[in-house]
Amino acid sequence: MPLVAAFACPHTPQLLVRPETEDRDMVLRVHAAYGEVKRLLEATRPDVICVVAGDHVEGFFLTSVPALAVYVGASVSGKFDRYRYTFDVHEPLARTVLEQGIERGFDLTYSQDLALDYAFFVPLHFTMPEPRVPIIPLFVNVYLPPQPTPARCYAWGQALRGILDARPERVALMASGGLSHFPGTDQYGSPDYEWDRQMLDRLVAGRGSETVTLTAEELDKAGNVEFRTWITLLGAVGPAKAHVICYVPS
Amino acid sequence: MSIHYTFPPASGYPLNRCLYQLKSDDAFRERYLKDPEAALREAGLDPERIAALRALDRDKLLALGAHAYLVFMASLRLKMATAPQAFERF
Fold this sequence. Notes:
The structure holds two protein chains of two kinds.
Chain A: E1 5-9, E2 17-19, H1 24-44, E3 48-53, E4 68-71, E5 75-80, E6 83-88, H2 91-103, E7 109-111, H3 118-127, E8 135-140, H4 150-165, E9 171-176, H5 193-204, H6 216-221, H7 227-237
Parallel strand pairs in A: 1-9, 3-8, 3-9, 4-7
Antiparallel strand pairs in A: 4-8, 5-6
Chain B: H1 13-24, H2 26-34, H3 36-42, H4 47-54, H5 58-63, H6 68-82, E1 87-89
Helix pairs in contact in B: 1-2, 1-6, 2-3
């Protein structure tokens, strides 16, 4: 069955655990946008949400750094600050994604035991439809160079779409990450809003395939290493035109 | 070459491992808050690295091979542990 929905969301931890330095009204505006995503997820009735996110050196440390990975288990848990969370995983479909992905030439890593990073939790905390549905965590390495190239991420998204289209489940895709930000660097206070706006214009015009020409250097420079999760999603949705629910520079 | 997030050199591994524990291992973070010197010695760090970590001297830590994101989050987690009232939960 074709995808029923595709979203790209931030996972900014300040949306969950807000320090006094962040503007409360701005945080609530983004919560409202998440509410819109939740409403759309409930309207499109997915059987499963495939979440493409970058691990923040939480589930995978330097003991092993997979470029692309799939979590294939019955459920997955993690913690962030005071939050403890567990999600059911759609194990049969996760296994199909892994097996078919390998078959299609993507040398995926898989895990049956890891701590689920907040990059997965934050958007799901706000958007999980009711009744809840299982997820499939899909990992793209974004913080530990060398990361997969944008072209590879896009190709993986295309392959993922092919795998999902051949299945009976109604699938929603969610990319978690971005946009421009530089956690832990000198540029933390100066995101590249112009890069973001130009990219959003391209996506609204259905020109997501142009992201295959981006380079690792450009993403790093623009504070958009996490944009690889969006590129993966763009590979899956092809020329579909994006609708921007919310973009709030902070 | 990436400028913000760079390849972590093997020489920085003990430091990165310690930062990772401060970020993600609640028990280690509690031991650190109780007795920083002992926790960092337990982590196998030398005096130079212990001094840099105790001061949360970002530039020095990066120069020693620490990953920028791990420095950021370890520092943040320590702040969240010591001043939880400065954060609102949703």
